[in-house]
Fold DUF3578 domain-containing protein.
Amino acid sequence: MEIGREIKKIRLEKKISIQEVSMHLNWPVSKLSKIERGEQGINIDDLMEVARTLEVDISDIVYSDGSNNVKKTSESANDSVSIYFKNIAKNYLIEAKNDFSNNPIAKMIVRELPKLILNRANINSSNYLVSGSAGKGQFAEIPWIAVLKKSITETATKGVYLVYLFTADMKGLYLSLNQGFTYFKNEIGSKGAKTEIEKVSKYLLDICNTIPSNYRNSIDLKAVGPLGKGYMAGHIAGVYYDLNKIPDDNKLMDDLRNMMSVYEEISGIIGNRSIEEFYRYVRAFNQGKLIDENSVNEKINDIIKDNNIADEDYDYDKKPKDKKNSIKDKNGTERYPRDAAVSARALKLAGYACEIDSMHLTFTRKSSKKKYTEPHHLIPISAYNDFQYSLDVEENICSLCSNCHNCLHYGIDSEREPILRRLYDDRKELLEKAGIQVEFEELKNYYGIS
């Protein structure tokens, strides 16, 4: 099919002279005449102008013979991402009935379109990889073309990436900020993978500041298979295109660049971590195990109130517990997981009293009606790597009034040491049963007491 011949055919059907069209386009008549005779090519921008002048859709020119001749359509549209998308949508389900090997539609998705997107969006190939997939050995339910930041991931099976996802019925297309579902399935198992990846999606959606409000929608790929459903679960944000009304390349590339700005923000959030380290961080955050001194009491208060932990019976396990993996923040600094529920149970075991002196004044928690005390790791959590077993256990967590707690952190050595000695003497046996052995002089060093 020759584009020029189709332009001429439509022009004559509409009874518009070549002079009228040329005048409207502000072209010399000779230029349009050469295009119609096939003596001169036409780029996508000029083709769109011709379509607007003739008051037809660009696809009416490209697809006007009604055939499914993929090769010819491909060659005529080699400058347009928009036309490629339309061509794939029109032919994919038909070609999916044919052999996968050397299939022209598969070639478009895997080779031609990724290269075109790379060029049209001026993507730096040193930092980004653009790749596509139509399946492996047979056509996939959901074909895709992904933009992957190499520092985060080079595969669509794990990590965060941008991806164009066709709906299974080939009527729609999403530009999605998404995640590799296979990683979650391999790490957690098929049962829990969907729940975990959705939690990460929500975490990123909540924390990102550059996601436009109209991109904060879920997606429906009309998928039946597990991979398609995995893409839906891994979706963070994105934009939808009706393939019957897909915008021109300018709009498509503007949207892609906007989403790449969001992708860059996520790259900053991931920071100096591998994607595996980042996921461990998010999972610990979602499980309430990344807490600091500023937020621990608020979380403990919620646990006591919501879980009725104050009314349950507990005892010290008096046995070692395995350590959990440390977590890295975006600067690459190691943080150690803490479980607010463990701290809440430690307060319960101490009877919500200060372990230095149960008569120390405190106040009553408004939500639970229990006395307010604060949890304190006797051996600081920062010493995590010095011990074989976990330090985040009830045996290592003391219940202190605010005054004694702050004294241990901020007091002078002569006031801190007696408090530390009292707690050490009371806890030494419990610590040993939890597999934690430390001498008092060593403990003093952790507190910087000379």
Remarks:
- The chain has a mean pLDDT of 88.
- The chain has 18 helices and nine strands.
- The beta strands are 128-135, 139-149, 160-166, 172-179, 237-242, 327-328, 334-335, 374-377, 397-400.
- The two ends are 88 Å apart (CA to CA).
